[in-house]
Amino acid sequence: GAGVSQSPSNKVTEKGKDVELRCDPISGHTALYWYRQSLGQGLEFLIYFQGNSAPDKSGLPSDRFSAERTGGSVSTLTIQRTQQEDSAVYLCASSFQGEDNEQFFGPGTRLTVL
Amino acid sequence: DQQVKQNSPSLSVQEGRISILNCDYTNSMFDYFLWYKKYPAEGPTFLISISSIKDKNEDGRFTVFLNKSAKHLSLHIVPSQPGDSAVYFCAARGSGNTGKLIFGQGTTLQVKP
């Protein structure tokens, strides 16, 4: 399939550890988004990459969170010194350039911080 | 501050009847609204959208209505089918050159055969 893929599908970690979550967008999509869904909540915007422009980081909840996108394709979301409140499903989406284009979501990574 | 709200966490409807899912928003700068559908263990999939310059958009069994004065939109599904059972998220996009979406909390729809 040529959809958005994310890895790992599940991640269990101990409080204080660092984690990396990976997103492979649909080939040709220049825009990439990270969202997270905490239990019982809607999707919360984290960060948005569009081509070579500076990313919109306005949704990152703290400086423990960072993301990068290498070569305009694969993206990695890193959470340092994880806390229990970081437990959530982290979803990646991609789209063609332009704000009107549909965002296609990956299946998400379920992160559990013990 | 929740800018997009779905006040009904769940809805149960009989097959063949109409399902109405509601969504309220607070930011008058939102210019585009979307509905996404999500099955367990899958990412959300786009269902239907509406621009703020319209008050209705229809696609098959799905119709979205927008009432800008009330800052309210709704999704109508008719006739409802058991395969429609899923979590439905309302989302809004701000004006300007940004693709980021603001989502509601979701409504779980159950369509009973």
What does this structure look like?
The complex is a heterodimer of chains A (114) and B (113). The termini of chain A are far apart. Chain A has strands at 5-7, 10-13, 19-24, 31-37, 43-50, 65-69, 75-79, 88-95, 104-105, 109-113. In chain A, 35% of the residues are buried. Chain A is globular and about 40 Å long. With 114 residues, chain A is mainly beta. Chain B is an all-beta fold and 113 residues long. Helix content of chain B is 0%, strand content 57%. Chain B has no helices and eleven strands. Chain B has strands at 4-5, 10-14, 19-25, 30-38, 45-51, 56-59, 62-67, 72-77, 86-94, 101-103, 107-112. In chain B, strands 2, 4, 5, 9, 10 and 11 form a six-stranded mixed beta sheet that branches. A five-stranded antiparallel beta sheet of chain B has the order 1-3-8-7-6, with no helix packed on it. The chains are: A mainly beta (114), B mainly beta (113).
In short:
Chain A is mainly beta and 114 residues long.
The succession of helices and strands of chain B, N to C, reads EEEEEEEEEEE
- What class would the helix/strand composition of chain A place it in? mainly beta
E-strand count of chain A: 10
Helix residue percentage of chain A: under 10%
The largest sheet of chain A is: 6 strands, mixed
Name the shape of chain A in a single word: globular
Shape of chain B: globular
Question: Which spans of chain B of ≥5 residues are poorly predicted at pLDDT below 50?
Answer: none
Rg of chain B, nearest Å: 13 Å
User: Helical element count of chain B?
Assistant: 0
- The number of E-state strands of chain B comes to 11
Contiguous helical run count of chain A: 0
User: Kindly, what is the distance between the CA atoms of the first and last residues of chain A, rounded to a whole number of angstroms?
Assistant: 33 Å
Return the average pLDDT of chain B rounded to an integer.
Answer: 93
Low-confidence stretches of chain A: none
Class inferred from helices and paired strands of chain B: mainly beta
Q: How many angstroms separate the termini of chain B?
A: 38 Å
